[in-house]
Amino acid sequence: MSEALRRRMVEDQLVRAGISDRRVLDAMGRVPREAFVPDALAASAYADSPLSIGGGQTISQPAIVALMLEAARVAPGDRVLDVGTGSGYAAAMAADMGATVHSIERDPDLAEAARARLKALGYDVAVTIGDGTLGLAEAAPFDAILVAAAAPAIPDSLRRQLAIGGRLVIPVGRTRQRQELRRITRRSAMEFDDVLLELVAFVPLIGREGWPDASGGG
Ligand code: SAM
């Protein structure tokens, strides 16, 4: 049943949204999104929308997760940092695609729940509780960094923790309803390319370089 719903999500939402990376589409067709949402929302797990996961936080819309993985060019063997573990879904996707995944979450309750869920489902993801605006220096450098919350500016620590050739995909903006999803690619030690991918609406990234409080956000 959920396999059919995933197939439909891939065809009706992701392919239509322009996602073409076969590795991303295949992983979206495998990872059971219903296991990452509260039981009461399981029936809506494959809807084309973000869903509440408690603590004022959300699991991102499937097309946005797919877009971020595609834009970050996640490939087997990549070292990936997922900032804002939330439910663990995006981290599970990257792990399913063959990456070595570290994930960091500031909310201890969400982090513990995601750690248990990922383990129970068999995804090998190292979940750390902490401020993702600082990255995860002990596991750097990363081939890809995915940030699932909006920052007012690109945190320097995240740029610095990219490997040469590494990609950082992050929503950037100061308004809560609309931010720019950007991809920063590290060309050399000091050179970075920066492209605008899409306009998005994420919850805020909280931290030293983040927003002053945790309320609101999409
Ligand atoms: N990727 C998640 C998923 O698949 O369920 C969705 C993440 S949700 C949109 C954003 C998450 O970022 C929330 O769980 C929030 O607690 C977390 N967050 C916000 N600021 C953070 C920070 N500075 N460091 C780490 N996590 C943070």
Structure, described:
The chain is α/β, with parallel strands linked by helices and 218 residues long. The protein has a single domain, classed as Vaccinia Virus protein VP39 (Rossmann fold). Helix content is 27%, strand content 26%. The chain contains 6 helices and 9 strands; from the N terminus they run ααββαβαβαββαβββ. The protein has helices at residues 2-15, 22-28, 62-71, 89-96, 108-121, 156-160; strands at 51-54, 57-59, 79-83, 100-105, 125-129, 142-147, 162-172, 179-186, 192-200. The protein has a 7-stranded mixed β-sheet. Strands 1-2 form a two-stranded antiparallel ribbon. The radius of gyration is 16 Å and the shape is globular. It starts with a helix and ends in an 18-residue tail after the last strand. Residues 57-60, 83-84, 86-87, 89-90, 104-107, 110, 131-133, 148-149, 202-203, 205-207, 210 line the site of S-adenosylmethionine.
Q: Which ligands accompany this protein?
A: S-adenosylmethionine
CATH fold name: Rossmann fold
Mean pLDDT, to the nearest integer, reads 94
Overall domain count: 1
Query: How big is the Rg?
Result: 16 Å
The strands making up the biggest β-sheet line up spatially as 5-4-3-6-7-8-9
Q: Helix proportion of residues, in percent?
A: 25-40%
Name given to the CATH homologous superfamily: Vaccinia Virus protein VP39
> Largest sheet at a glance?
7 strands, mixed
Number of distinct beta strands: 9
Concise description?
The protein is an alpha/beta fold and 218 residues long. It has helices spanning 2-15, 22-28, 62-71, 89-96, 108-121, 156-160, and strands spanning 51-54, 57-59, 79-83, 100-105, 125-129, 142-147, 162-172, 179-186, 192-200. It has one domain (2-200): Vaccinia Virus protein VP39 (Rossmann fold, 3-Layer(aba) Sandwich), CATH 3.40.50.150.
